[in-house]
Design brief:
Elements (H helix, E strand, L loop, with lengths): L2 E3 L9 H7 L8 E3 L16 H13 L8 H8 L6 E3 L5 E5 L9 H12 L10 E6 L3 H10 L5 E8 L5 H8 L5 E6 L3 H12 L2 H4 L4 E3 L5 H4 L3 H15 L3 E6 L4 H11 L4 E8 L4 H6 L25 H7 L3 H7 L1 E4 L2 H15 L5 H15 L5 E6 L7 H8 L7 H7 L6 E3 L3 H9 L1
Parallel strand pairs: 4-12, 5-6, 5-8, 6-7, 7-13, 9-10, 9-12, 10-11
Antiparallel strand pairs: 1-2, 3-4
Helix pairs in contact: 2-3, 2-10, 3-4, 4-5, 5-6, 10-11, 15-16, 15-17
This protein binds pyridoxal-5'-phosphate.
The site of pyridoxal-5'-phosphate has 17 residues, from helix 11.
Length: about 425
């Protein structure tokens, strides 16, 4: 399998190369040259997430130097569960993606990316610096995945004061080869600084850089696995396809679900739940696609005004009319997020993080509009990561999972920097 760019101006590229490069040289996103089809019977003997990923991703790795190592990469990276649990409302489920080391779904992609990059041939004997801008969860997942990995350093940029206190603690608690920089600016400012560094060839002559943002194929592809695992199991057990509501920011997680369906996994409808940021809901309601600055909401990991994977969605659905027909996007504002968290706890004892609450509320609205069948809302983070939002709404303490508690017990430290490329450059060279 070779990879092409969504912008059409990059020669066919191997998967290893595409993962090492991140963004295609023409500024587009790498996509497979064709969408493989996999018969569901291929999964009959797959036991667990890593083996499901091995089957599912084999055609995407075919012909690549890393193809033979795919089973090892999957086993090393995807070593925690993604359980499907019944919700209090009939035929509704929660797909829990928060059982990894940093309690958000970003762990699946970040760990797979690290396991892949670790096995790529090294182009220099200097360590590779993984530079990430994060609105909260990506940075911690990437830091955990690359922590103490020889040959790598991680530099995280996050907007000071705009991530939850526990997210900030997680970003600063690793130390060793992980540096946390709190930027006196917005997430967009952080992203801009990262872009500038990645485009700075003078800097990269001294400091080999790589990114780990959500456009990386090394993160996107493994995220298909949990959708495949639960949808196949559900189909085997009930003879029906499972439908999904995915809380969406940059469209990475949702695109993984869409790709899993495209290769033949029995997945029904896929609905995108957003926070108050209107880019996607306006497009799907019929307006021209228009990006804008992200606005701050309680579901901060989805505060995105320009979803980076939208180009990949348009590659799969080149006709906007058909694209709009294929998906629904539902917008959930902060008041509704609060109301949903409080009510689901009161009525069913369910504790939801603000992102997950967007999906559950979107599902509730669809049910009241007559949606039938079996639906899974995707739980993208553990509510304990957002205790400062969730606890006042439910008037009780959210139990902290062991892995998260372990991180919160470590001391944390971050260096403050202003939105100034010169400062970042000097810090990277130091
Ligand atoms: C990153 C994130 C999202 C959004 O995922 P995308 O792939 O960017 O759409 C949703 N919820 C949580 C908790 C996240 O960390």
């Amino acid at each position: 399998m070779k990879y092409l760019s969504t912008r059409g101006d990059t020669p066919p590229t191997d998967l290893s190369r595409a993962i090492a490069t991140g963004l295609a040289p023409d500024g587009g996103l790498f996509v497979p040259e064709s969408v493989p089809h996999i018969a569901t019977s291929e999964f009959d003997s797959a036991d667990g997430l890593a083996q499901t990923a091995g089957q599912l991703l084999a055609p995407f790795f075919a012909g690549d130097a890393l193809a033979a190592q795919l089973p090892d990469i999957a086993a090393a990276a995807l070593n925690f569960d993604a359980p499907l649990r019944a919700l209090g409302t009939p035929n509704d489920y929660l797909l829990e993606l928060f059982h990894g080391p940093t309690a958000a779904f970003k762990d699946f992609g970040a760990r797979f990316l690290a396991a892949t990059m670790q096995r790529l041939p090294r182009e220099s004997d200097r360590p590779t610096t993984i530079l990430v801008a994060t609105s909260g969860d990506t940075g911690a997942a990437v830091a955990a995945a690359f922590h103490r990995l020889p040959g790598f350093r991680v530099v995280i940029l996050y907007p000071d004061g705009r991530v939850s206190p526990r997210q900030a603690h997680q970003l600063g608690c690793f130390g060793d080869n992980v540096v946390a920089l709190k930027v006196d600016g917005t997430f967009d400012d952080c992203q801009q600084l990262v872009k500038q560094a990645l485009g700075d060839t003078g800097l990269q002559a001294h400091v080999p850089l790589s990114s780990a943002n959500s456009i990386s194929l090394g993160r996107l592809l493994p995220q298909m696995s949990y959708y495949a695992q639960v949808a196949l199991a559900h189909h085997r057990r009930h003879g029906r396809s499972l439908n999904f509501v995915v809380p969406t920011g940059n469209l990475g997680n949702a695109l993984a679900c869409i790709l899993a369906r495209a290769v033949g996994i029995p997945i029904g409808d896929i609905v995108l739940a957003t926070n108050a940021n209107p880019t996607l809901t306006e497009f799907f309601a019929g307006d021209e696609y228009r990006t804008r600055a992200g606005i701050a909401t309680l579901a901060n990991a989805m505060d995105i005004g320009a979803p980076s994977n939208f180009e990949r969605l348009r590659w799969l659905y080149p006709d906007d009319v058909k694209l709009r027909r294929a998906f629904t996007a539902i917008r959930v504002d902060d008041d509704t997020i609060r109301e949903t968290i409080a009510r689901r706890y009161r009525q069913y004892g369910e504790i939801l993080c603000p992102h997950t609450a967007c999906a559950v509320n979107a599902l509730e609205r669809m049910r009241s509009d007559g949606a039938e069948g079996d639906w899974a809302a995707v739980a993208t983070a553990h509510p304990a990561k957002f205790d400062s939002v969730v606890e006042p709404l439910i008037s009780t303490r959210v139990p902290v999972p062991t892995a998260l508690a372990e991180l919160l017990n470590r001391p944390a430290r971050a260096e403050k920097i202003s939105v100034d490329y010169g400062t970042l450059r000097a810090r990277l060279l130091a």
